[in-house]
Amino acid sequence: MTAMHVDSHCIFCKIVAGHIPSRKAYEDDEFLVFHDIAPWAPVHLLVIPKTHIASLAETDPAEHAAMLGRMLALAPRLAKENGADNGFRTVINTGSDGGQEVYHLHMHVIGGPRPWAKG
Ligand code: 5GP
Ligand code: ZN
Fold it and tell me: Which structural domains are found in the chain, ordered by start?
């Protein structure tokens, strides 16, 4: 694994470090998955690399393509394990026009029976 980056002001780095609590759904060496604090739907998970990368716009294909592939590849398993049996949505908001609020790369995995609160 490449060097781990931490941003001391980043809320998701604080979650990775355990300084802010979260409801964890999955963890391995590379990723942490936890439940969104303001869920849109019965299942709303955030998948984050443990290393600090501000956004998808900051990724470099040569360095990050494999990690991004592994991140996306986690989604079906997470959806299934958390009860999103009938489909799910994967979303990565990027930058201000993309509606990104937290500048630590994350993928939303949203699903579960409708109606949803949003989306
Ligand atoms: P973005 O708009 O950046 O794609 O999404 C950020 C998401 O992070 C939002 O859905 C928001 O509810 C969630 N979020 C923000 N702060 C926290 C937190 O401290 N804990 C958890 N579990 N989710 C958070
Ligand atoms: Zn961070």
Answer: 11-111 (3.30.428.10)
Query: Against a cut of 0.70, is the pTM above it?
Result: yes
Q: Are 44 and 88 a contacting pair, CB within 8 Å?
A: no
Quickly count: other Cβ atoms within 10 Å of residue 100's Cβ: 18
Mutate to test the pocket of ligand 1, among 11, 19, 22, 101 (most ligand atoms within 8 A of CB): 101
Q: What is the pLDDT of residue 3?
A: 85
- Ligand 2 ion: nearby residues, β-carbon < 5 Å: 7, 10, 12-13, 52, 104
* Alpha helix ranges (H) inside the chain: 11-17, 61-81
Confidence of residue 1 (pLDDT cuts 50, 70, 90): low
| Cβ atoms 51, 2 nearer than 8 A | yes
Q: Which residues pair with 91 in a beta bridge?
A: 108
